[in-house]
Amino acid sequence: MDYKKSNAPLNTVTRDMIKLSEDTGNVYETVCIIAKRANQIASEMKHDLEKKLQEFASLNDNLEEISENREQIEISRYYEKLPKPTLIAAQEYVDHKIMFRNPIKESKAME
Q1: Do 65 and 6 contact (CB within 8 A), yes or no?
Q2: CB of 49 closer than 8 Å to CB of 79
């Protein structure tokens, strides 16, 4: 999933959790699914940001060099303007782009 091309809103959106939980039948399970996906997205975003900022790392940093590095500041601002991982995960859930399963429910259904 390319979170940079996500159509998730940039601001908080009020959602009807009862309507969202129709797939699972449980509000808490739905929240758990969205939270786990949000953690995955946050981890991916953090890894990408660290990889891009690693290019600017130098062994002998001083305060003047850090404050004058415009490229690094622009990259950081770009990532700050992206939608938050929870908003991206919620939008993915609404768009049915998240695959999930509950092994406990599956094992009970087989019995």
Answers
A1: no
A2: yes
Tokens standing for 38? 């949000």
As a residue count, the chain comes to 111
pLDDT lower than 70: segments of the chain? 1-4, 57-68, 111
**What's the CA gap between 52 and 69, in Å, rounded?**
13
DSSP string of 33-73?
HHHHHHHHHHHHHHHHHHHHHHTT--TT--HHHHHH-HHHH
**In sequence order, which residues have a C-beta less than 8 Å from that of residue 25 and are 6 or more positions away?**
none
Q: Kindly state the DSSP code that residue 22 receives in the 8-state scheme.
A: T
Q: What does the buried/exposed string (b/e) look like for 44-60 if buried means 16 or more CB atoms within 10 Å of the residue's CB? A: ebeeebeeeeeeeeeee
Half-sphere exposure of 23 (CA within 13 A, CB side): 17
